[in-house]
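Course assignment 3, question 2. Fill in each field.
Student: A.L.
Task: Predict the tertiary structure for the chain below.
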Amino acid sequence: MPEIEIKEVTVVARPTPSRRSEYRKYERLIANIKRVYPYSLMVRERLDQVNEDLKKLESEKERKEYIKNIEKDVFGEYEGDMRQMTITQGRLLIKLIDRETQNTSYDLIKEYRGWFTAAFWQGIARIFGTNLKDQYDRYGEDALIELIIMDIDTGRL
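Answer field:
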């Protein structure tokens, strides 16, 4: 008897907020995700490239110099865009970076720049009411974000 493998299909209903204020929050969330999601994808790609390049470097001095140069490039390229983001968009970006890299922003800073720098930026983030250690929970509190990202990836949004 012939066998055919059928790919898994996920059927998800779009949320239909009953009140106008809920619908406006949902639409605002979509707009914010559309703004920051491309940046999280760029972070993943850049991080993969950096890790690949770091494997080729032999001495610790070369690695530190390389990371310093990458940091200058990234700040020069994206600093203006990051300054234009709202606090809400920044919080979303922190969560989406965790989604894409499987590491919190705090862990990434700590790994590449050291614990002191990570603690400094965590302190700045806490002043603005956010946390670099926030983790992405696709089945819990971030389920709606996951649905929106799935819609973006499939081209429905």
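Instructor remarks: The helical segments are 20-56, 60-83, 87-101, 105-113, 115-127, 143-154. The two ends are 41 Å apart (CA to CA).
Grade: pending
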